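Figure 6 in text form: structure in, sequence out.
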Protein backbone atom coordinates (compact mmCIF):
# COMPACT_ATOMS: atom_id res chain seq x y z
CA UNK A 1 0.00 0.00 0.00
CA UNK A 2 1.50 3.34 -1.05
CA UNK A 3 2.11 6.02 1.53
CA UNK A 4 0.24 9.32 1.18
CA UNK A 5 2.43 12.19 -0.05
CA UNK A 6 4.15 14.17 2.69
CA UNK A 7 2.67 17.66 2.89
CA UNK A 8 4.50 20.77 4.04
CA UNK A 9 2.65 24.07 4.04
CA UNK A 10 4.02 26.91 1.91
CA UNK A 11 4.45 28.99 5.07
CA UNK A 12 6.67 26.31 6.61
CA UNK A 13 8.71 25.96 3.42
CA UNK A 14 9.37 29.70 3.33
CA UNK A 15 10.25 29.76 7.03
CA UNK A 16 12.68 26.87 6.65
CA UNK A 17 14.37 28.56 3.69
CA UNK A 18 14.64 31.85 5.57
CA UNK A 19 16.09 30.16 8.66
CA UNK A 20 18.59 28.30 6.49
CA UNK A 21 19.73 31.46 4.71
CA UNK A 22 19.96 33.53 7.90
CA UNK A 23 22.06 30.87 9.62
CA UNK A 24 24.53 30.79 6.73
CA UNK A 25 24.83 34.59 6.61
CA UNK A 26 25.29 34.89 10.38
CA UNK A 27 28.35 32.63 10.21
CA UNK A 28 30.11 35.09 7.90
CA UNK A 29 32.37 37.91 9.02
CA UNK A 30 30.77 41.33 8.85
CA UNK A 31 31.06 44.35 6.57
CA UNK A 32 30.36 47.97 7.51
CA UNK A 33 29.41 50.60 4.93
CA UNK A 34 29.09 54.21 6.05
CA UNK A 35 29.15 57.71 4.68
CA UNK A 36 31.87 60.22 5.53
CA UNK A 37 32.42 63.84 4.51
CA UNK A 38 34.04 63.05 1.15
CA UNK A 39 32.30 59.84 0.14
CA UNK A 40 31.37 56.33 1.28
CA UNK A 41 33.66 53.96 3.18
CA UNK A 42 33.62 50.15 3.04
CA UNK A 43 35.37 48.14 5.75
CA UNK A 44 35.17 44.34 5.74
CA UNK A 45 36.45 41.87 8.32
CA UNK A 46 38.11 39.67 5.72
CA UNK A 47 41.37 37.80 6.49
CA UNK A 48 41.21 36.43 2.91
CA UNK A 49 41.02 39.91 1.38
CA UNK A 50 44.06 39.39 -0.87
CA UNK A 51 42.36 36.60 -2.78
CA UNK A 52 38.61 36.69 -2.01
CA UNK A 53 37.19 40.19 -2.03
CA UNK A 54 33.98 41.12 -0.25
CA UNK A 55 34.09 44.71 -1.54
CA UNK A 56 34.28 45.61 -5.23
CA UNK A 57 33.64 48.26 -7.85
CA UNK A 58 30.54 47.85 -9.99
CA UNK A 59 30.53 51.04 -12.07
CA UNK A 60 31.73 54.65 -12.10
CA UNK A 61 30.18 55.76 -8.80
CA UNK A 62 28.81 52.44 -7.51
CA UNK A 63 30.35 49.95 -5.11
CA UNK A 64 29.31 46.50 -3.91
CA UNK A 65 29.79 44.70 -0.60
CA UNK A 66 28.62 41.24 0.42
CA UNK A 67 28.70 38.56 3.09
CA UNK A 68 27.77 34.89 2.94
CA UNK A 69 28.75 32.21 0.43
CA UNK A 70 31.51 33.56 -1.76
CA UNK A 71 30.55 31.75 -4.97
CA UNK A 72 26.96 33.02 -4.70
CA UNK A 73 27.74 36.68 -4.10
CA UNK A 74 30.55 36.57 -6.66
CA UNK A 75 27.98 35.46 -9.27
CA UNK A 76 25.82 38.41 -8.26
CA UNK A 77 28.76 40.81 -8.46
CA UNK A 78 29.67 39.69 -11.99
CA UNK A 79 26.03 39.87 -13.07
CA UNK A 80 25.84 43.40 -11.69
CA UNK A 81 28.88 44.50 -13.66
CA UNK A 82 27.40 43.06 -16.85
CA UNK A 83 24.07 44.76 -16.16
CA UNK A 84 25.76 48.11 -15.54
CA UNK A 85 28.00 47.87 -18.62
CA UNK A 86 25.11 46.94 -20.89
CA UNK A 87 22.85 49.69 -19.54
CA UNK A 88 25.60 52.31 -19.75
CA UNK A 89 26.47 51.28 -23.31
CA UNK A 90 22.85 51.07 -24.51
CA UNK A 91 21.69 54.33 -22.94
CA UNK A 92 24.00 56.62 -21.02
CA UNK A 93 26.46 56.20 -18.18
CA UNK A 94 24.29 58.41 -15.99
CA UNK A 95 21.45 55.90 -16.38
CA UNK A 96 23.39 53.34 -14.32
CA UNK A 97 22.22 53.91 -10.75
CA UNK A 98 22.43 52.02 -7.49
CA UNK A 99 18.64 52.01 -7.29
CA UNK A 100 18.23 50.28 -10.67
CA UNK A 101 20.96 47.78 -9.79
CA UNK A 102 19.38 47.07 -6.40
CA UNK A 103 16.03 46.41 -8.10
CA UNK A 104 17.70 43.97 -10.50
CA UNK A 105 19.39 42.16 -7.63
CA UNK A 106 16.10 42.06 -5.71
CA UNK A 107 14.37 40.31 -8.60
CA UNK A 108 17.13 37.71 -8.86
CA UNK A 109 17.27 37.02 -5.11
CA UNK A 110 13.48 36.89 -4.81
CA UNK A 111 13.17 34.44 -7.69
CA UNK A 112 15.85 32.15 -6.27
CA UNK A 113 14.28 32.28 -2.81
CA UNK A 114 10.80 31.33 -3.97
CA UNK A 115 11.52 28.94 -6.83
CA UNK A 116 14.86 27.21 -6.28
CA UNK A 117 15.59 24.32 -3.97
CA UNK A 118 18.04 26.37 -1.91
CA UNK A 119 18.07 30.15 -1.32
CA UNK A 120 21.21 32.21 -1.71
CA UNK A 121 23.06 32.54 1.59
CA UNK A 122 24.03 36.14 0.93
CA UNK A 123 23.41 39.67 2.08
CA UNK A 124 24.65 42.53 -0.07
CA UNK A 125 25.00 46.30 -0.12
CA UNK A 126 24.91 48.45 -3.24
CA UNK A 127 26.17 51.99 -2.62
CA UNK A 128 26.38 55.01 -4.90
CA UNK A 129 28.29 58.18 -4.06
CA UNK A 130 26.50 61.36 -5.12
CA UNK A 131 27.74 64.79 -6.05
CA UNK A 132 26.79 65.84 -2.52
CA UNK A 133 26.39 63.84 0.69
CA UNK A 134 22.64 64.24 0.41
CA UNK A 135 22.72 62.38 -2.90
CA UNK A 136 24.55 59.33 -1.51
CA UNK A 137 22.59 56.07 -1.67
CA UNK A 138 23.11 52.86 0.33
CA UNK A 139 20.81 49.89 -0.34
CA UNK A 140 20.82 46.68 1.71
CA UNK A 141 19.46 43.51 0.10
CA UNK A 142 18.70 40.31 1.95
CA UNK A 143 18.53 36.69 0.83
CA UNK A 144 14.82 36.91 -0.13
CA UNK A 145 15.13 40.00 -2.30
CA UNK A 146 13.98 42.50 0.32
CA UNK A 147 15.50 45.97 -0.20
CA UNK A 148 16.01 48.67 2.41
CA UNK A 149 17.22 52.21 1.75
CA UNK A 150 19.75 52.83 4.53
CA UNK A 151 20.41 56.35 5.75
CA UNK A 152 24.12 56.87 6.05
CA UNK A 153 25.40 53.57 7.42
CA UNK A 154 24.75 49.83 7.64
CA UNK A 155 26.41 46.63 8.87
CA UNK A 156 25.75 43.21 7.35
CA UNK A 157 26.73 39.68 8.33
CA UNK A 158 27.47 38.20 11.73
CA UNK A 159 25.30 39.59 14.52
CA UNK A 160 24.12 42.43 12.27
CA UNK A 161 21.32 43.58 14.59
CA UNK A 162 23.75 44.31 17.40
CA UNK A 163 26.32 45.83 15.06
CA UNK A 164 23.74 48.14 13.47
CA UNK A 165 22.53 49.25 16.88
CA UNK A 166 26.09 50.22 17.85
CA UNK A 167 26.72 51.84 14.48
CA UNK A 168 23.58 53.98 14.56
CA UNK A 169 24.37 55.16 18.08
CA UNK A 170 27.78 56.51 17.06
CA UNK A 171 27.62 57.45 13.39
CA UNK A 172 27.16 61.13 12.48
CA UNK A 173 26.92 62.80 9.07
CA UNK A 174 30.02 64.66 7.94
CA UNK A 175 32.60 62.59 9.81
CA UNK A 176 36.14 62.59 8.46
CA UNK A 177 37.55 59.48 6.84
CA UNK A 178 39.67 58.79 9.91
CA UNK A 179 36.72 59.04 12.29
CA UNK A 180 34.55 56.87 10.04
CA UNK A 181 37.28 54.24 9.81
CA UNK A 182 37.76 54.18 13.60
CA UNK A 183 34.01 53.75 14.04
CA UNK A 184 33.86 50.93 11.49
CA UNK A 185 36.74 49.05 13.14
CA UNK A 186 35.20 49.54 16.57
CA UNK A 187 31.86 48.16 15.43
CA UNK A 188 33.44 45.22 13.63
CA UNK A 189 35.42 44.42 16.78
CA UNK A 190 32.13 43.89 18.63
CA UNK A 191 31.85 40.54 16.90
CA UNK A 192 33.56 38.84 19.85
CA UNK A 193 32.91 41.30 22.68
CA UNK A 194 29.86 42.30 24.64
CA UNK A 195 29.85 46.09 24.32
CA UNK A 196 32.88 48.35 23.87
CA UNK A 197 35.52 46.54 21.77
CA UNK A 198 38.47 45.27 23.71
CA UNK A 199 40.91 44.31 20.95
CA UNK A 200 40.62 45.85 17.50
CA UNK A 201 40.76 43.66 14.43
CA UNK A 202 44.29 43.55 12.97
CA UNK A 203 44.73 45.91 10.04
CA UNK A 204 45.90 43.09 7.78
CA UNK A 205 42.55 41.34 8.34
CA UNK A 206 40.61 44.29 6.95
CA UNK A 207 39.52 44.98 3.40
CA UNK A 208 39.10 48.73 2.97
CA UNK A 209 37.79 50.77 0.05
CA UNK A 210 36.13 54.11 -0.60
CA UNK A 211 33.92 55.78 -3.14
CA UNK A 212 35.45 59.26 -3.31
CA UNK A 213 33.02 61.96 -4.28
CA UNK A 214 35.42 64.21 -6.20
CA UNK A 215 37.34 61.63 -8.20
CA UNK A 216 36.81 61.89 -11.96
CA UNK A 217 34.34 59.30 -13.25
CA UNK A 218 35.63 56.15 -11.49
CA UNK A 219 35.23 56.92 -7.80
CA UNK A 220 36.17 53.53 -6.32
CA UNK A 221 39.58 53.17 -4.68
CA UNK A 222 41.06 50.47 -2.46
CA UNK A 223 43.05 51.56 0.59
CA UNK A 224 46.01 49.74 2.07
CA UNK A 225 47.88 50.58 5.23
CA UNK A 226 46.71 52.81 8.09
CA UNK A 227 43.80 55.15 7.44
CA UNK A 228 44.37 58.60 8.91
CA UNK A 229 42.68 59.29 12.24
CA UNK A 230 41.64 62.48 13.94
CA UNK A 231 43.58 64.04 16.75
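Output sequence:
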Amino acid sequence: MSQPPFYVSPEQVMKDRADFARAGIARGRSVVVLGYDEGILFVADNPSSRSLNKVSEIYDRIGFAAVGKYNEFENLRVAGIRYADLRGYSYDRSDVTARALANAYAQTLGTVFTQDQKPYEVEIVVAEVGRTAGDDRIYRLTYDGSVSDEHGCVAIGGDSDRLNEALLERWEPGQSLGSAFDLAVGVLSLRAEGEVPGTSIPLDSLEIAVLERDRPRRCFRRLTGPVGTDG
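Caption detail: The mean pLDDT is 90.
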